[in-house]
Amino acid sequence: KQEVTQIPAALSVPEGENLVLNCSFTDSAIYNLQWFRQDPGKGLTSLLLIQSSQREQTSGRLNASLDKSSGRSTLYIAASQPGDSATYLCAVMGGANSKLTFGKGITLSVRP
Amino acid sequence: GAVVSQHPSRVICKSGTSVKIECRSLDFQATTMFWYRQFPKKSLMLMATSNEGSKATYEQGVEKDKFLINHASLTLSTLTVTSAHPEDSSFYICSAVRGAGNSPLHFGNGTRLTVT
Fewer Cβ close by (within 10 Å): the C or N end of chain A? Predict the structure, then answer.
């Protein structure tokens, strides 16, 4: 059974700092890995999707990496801003159009 | 971009009543939709997978007679919580897949259900 872990559960950083959010998963046989952002009381916004054959994806100030063999992914946020404050969830998909297994998320607070 | 609309965003109902939540894909046809439940400080829990024109596939431990799912068209799936109890109070989120393969999931904004 796939398990996804995100540690720490919460993180507070000053504005402008570069930061890394970690995600680990137990079963390396994944189809893809996705990072999502969730604002309080809202749904999820897809940030980045990394296919199993890829090592990283970039979008603006965000960069996500994937090391399938070690069961790890990182989300790098450059020059953090208060608007980046949210919960970031990592999820892995086991097969094409199969279900996503989510981590519990990391709640990020960027202090002005 | 793809948009998934979920309605209502909040609902309060009394024990024993039923509540219907709608999930619509606004600018694409969604062959598959997923329904999740989220508890505070917990992972999203997949409840069921809904495929257009066929019966939903429920995850283990999810009562299909309590959580009725209907995916009558390629743009609409509904979740009906029947005979609601206070323990059904939760945040319910739907998501839709556009196409197949390595397509990102698009999520609705969720529905906060409170059963009194």
Answer: N
